[in-house]
Amino acid sequence: MGEGWQKFATFLTHAGRQAPDQRGSFVNMPVERGSTVVFPTVEDMEAQGVHAYDHRLVYGAMGNPVQHRLEQVIAALEGGSHAQVVNSGLAACSVALLAFLKSGDHLLLPDSVYGPTRRFALGMLARFGVETGFYPPRADEATLRAHLRPNTAVVFAESPGSHTFEVQDVPRIARLAHGAGARLLLDNTWGIGAFQPFTHGVDVSIQALTKYPSGHADVILGSITVQRQEHWQALRRAAIELGACGAPDDCWLTLRGLKTMAVRLAQQARSAHELALWLESRPEVAHVRHPALPGCPGHEVWKRDFTDASGLFGVELAEGITQEAMIAMLNGLKLFSIGASWGGYESLVLPTSGGLTRHHEEGLPKGAAFRIQVGLENVADLKADLARGLDGLAP
């Protein structure tokens, strides 16, 4: 576990670097901050304005040089042709949805979708006349067909789900969505580098660059990648109309973070897998939801479609352990901070039982459950910290 990330190590080390010139130059490109772009003549400004779809400098709100370099790296990493960087992972979800939906359309979300994406669909999209339905994340073909409508314009996927970790059969979803005339959008944040979206039928791939690409818990940023020119035209038009862009400092920090992402993810994947296997052996644990483990829903699909795993997984405690007892255990951990994000260098825990919204019962934990983000600490130290907490529980 962890070796799959290494295929990107050389690419990430060299991508986005400053090209040396005869006078010498720094390895990393400089940060250029600005809003107004000035031109020698009106004719020059008008000539540059036609390049708003070409990752060229037109106006600060349409992108900056560091953003454009980051977009090139993300597009290559995801296997697409173009990427649009926006100010957060949620913005990446919302801008992508707004780009491909209109009033009267039907949106189909997996029931395991990221909570803020659900909230955006049921809030703002509903006010704009878009109806949203929810399908079980591991729906078979007949069930998924039954959820599709003549006006379904977008099917959304998130594989695995960021709280319950169901791995979705993305190629099958793509086939059914395209057969119904819909586009498939995927939140691929968990699978960056381990799942190539466009080889599996995805039309639009979404990343929270906040997570593994930046890697240091100090950036909020997102990206949307496409492969087909028609999708780029729709996406870029929406980004321009919404004023969606990335701050140059955040883009620069993410470019820097990408240089070490392969080695960080390799380490985090190995540590998470070892910790997940150890947790499976504990009597206080009923289920470990890690896609690389045979007991995780969709494990066979993960083996078929992914080249590796990440450092995020779920734990469901044994029957009889209360939510209150679990929270007391989490509060007592020393190396795991309590936080809702993931993908940084630090280990985190987050309760996932009692607060999840579902339209279908499938996938909900039956007992007290929490999510683990494995950072870069020594895995033996993480085991010892969890062991102290689990020892205090009485199933």
From TrEMBL:
Its cofactor is pyridoxal 5'-phosphate. Gene3D superfamilies: Aspartate Aminotransferase, domain 1, Type I PLP-dependent aspartate aminotransferase-like (Major domain). Transmembrane segments: none annotated. InterPro entries: Cys/Met-Metab_PyrdxlP-dep_enz (IPR000277), Cys_b_lyase_bac (IPR006233), PyrdxlP-dep_Trfase (IPR015424), PyrdxlP-dep_Trfase_major (IPR015421), PyrdxlP-dep_Trfase_small (IPR015422). Keywords: Lyase, Pyridoxal phosphate. It catalyses: L,L-cystathionine + H2O = L-homocysteine + pyruvate + NH4(+). Belongs to the trans-sulfuration enzymes family. NCBIfam families: cysta_beta_ly_B. This is Cystathionine beta-lyase. The gene is metC.
